[in-house]
Amino acid sequence: GAVVSQHPSRVICKSGTSVKIECRSLDFQATTMFWYRQFPKQSLMLMATSNEGSKATYEQGVEKDKFLINHASLTLSTLTVTSAHPEDSSFYICSAETPRTGNTDTQYFGPGTRLTVL
Amino acid sequence: GENVEQHPSTLSVQEGDSAVIKCTYSDSASNYFPWYKQELGKGPQLIIDIRSNVGEKKDQRIAVTLNKTAKHFSLHITETQPEDSAVYFCAANILFGTGTRLTIIP
Q1: pLDDT of residue B16
Q2: Do residue A43 and residue B99 have CB atoms under 8 angstroms apart?
Q3: How many CA within 13 A on the CB side of residue A27?
Q4: Given this model, what pLDDT does residue A19 score?
Q5: Are A6 and B99 an interchain contact pair (Cβ–Cβ within 8 Å)?
Q6: Comparing C-alpha atoms, which of A41, A31, A24 is closest to residue A94?
Q7: Residue in A106, A110, A111 nearest the CB of B46
Q8: A19: how many CB neighbours lie within 10 A of its CB?
C-alpha cells in the first residue's frame, strides 16, 4: 500500500518557539493532504485540508496564523506550529489522499508526531 | 453539524470469538466508509473500506457492512487474535468516529 512518512516522530520544544512537521507521500503523488490533531484517548480532529499549490482550508476553530500549512509539492506538506504553548502539546497526524477522480479517495496516514511544549 | 457515532467505546472479547463495532453517520452525502486500526503511539492504518455502491466487503477475517438507508455501517472481526487488540476508528469520508478500544483476552 501507499506509504506516508512524518518527521520528526517526536519533538520537545520550549514555549514560544515554532516547530515544523513534515509529511511526505513516499511512493505516490498526493494532490490533497490532511492534518489531524489527536488528544490522548480521543478521536482524530481534522485541522485543515491542504491542496498542492493553493492555500489550506482550515476547520472551524483552528487558527490559520498559528498552524501554518504549506503544500509546496505533490509529495510534501508541512505544518508549522508557531509560538507554541503547552496547550498545543498533542499528537499530530497527517494523511495523504491517493489520486482518483470522482468519489472520495483513500487516505493513508503518517505515523504521527508527538509534540510536547514545555 | 454532521457527526459519526461509534459504539461501543470499549470492547473485550475472548480470543477466537468475534467482535463487532458499529457506526452511524448523519451526512447522507457520505460515500466512503473506511475503518482504521490505531496502535499506541502510531498513526491509524487503513484495514478495510467500503464505498456507498456496495453493501458488504470481506477481507479474510475482517468484513464491513453498510446500510445506506439506515446510515450505519459495521466492522466484523472473526476468529480474533491478541494482535487484533487496538483502537479502531470508523469514518464517513473524512469525519471520524470516537473510537473503540478492542481488547482480545487470551
Answers
A1: 97
A2: yes
A3: 4
A4: 97
A5: no
A6: A24
A7: A106
A8: 19
The larger pLDDT score, comparing residue A113 to residue A53, is at A113
What grid cell was written down for A7?
518527521
Measured CA to CA, the distance from residue A111 to residue B16 in angstroms comes to 29
Contacts of A112 in chain B (CB under 8 A): 41-43
- Judging by DSSP bridges, how do beta strands A90-97 and A113-117 pair with one another? antiparallel
Grade residue A29 by pLDDT with cuts at 50, 70 and 90. confident
- Is B44–A44 a contact, with Cβ atoms under 8 angstroms apart? yes
C-alpha grid cell for residue A22?
513534515
Where do the H-state alpha helices sit in chain B? none
* The predicted structure's pLDDT at residue A102: 46
Which DSSP string do the residues of A46-109 spell out, in sequence order? EEEEEETTSPPEEPTT--TTTEEEEEEETTEEEEEE-S--GGG-EEEEEEEEPP-SSSPPPEEE
pLDDT at A101: 47
**Stretches in chain B below the pLDDT threshold 70:** none
Mutate to test the interface with B, among A23, A43, A60 (most CBs of B within 10 A): A43
Closest CA to B45 of A22, A38, A107, A47: A107
Interface contact flag, B41 A112, Cβ < 8 Å:
yes
Residues 6+ apart with CB under 8 A from B32: A103, A104, A105, B49, B50, B51, B52, B92, B93
Mind listing the pLDDT tens digit for each residue in A63-114? 999 999 998 888 999 999 999 999 999 999 999 987 654 455 688 899 999 9
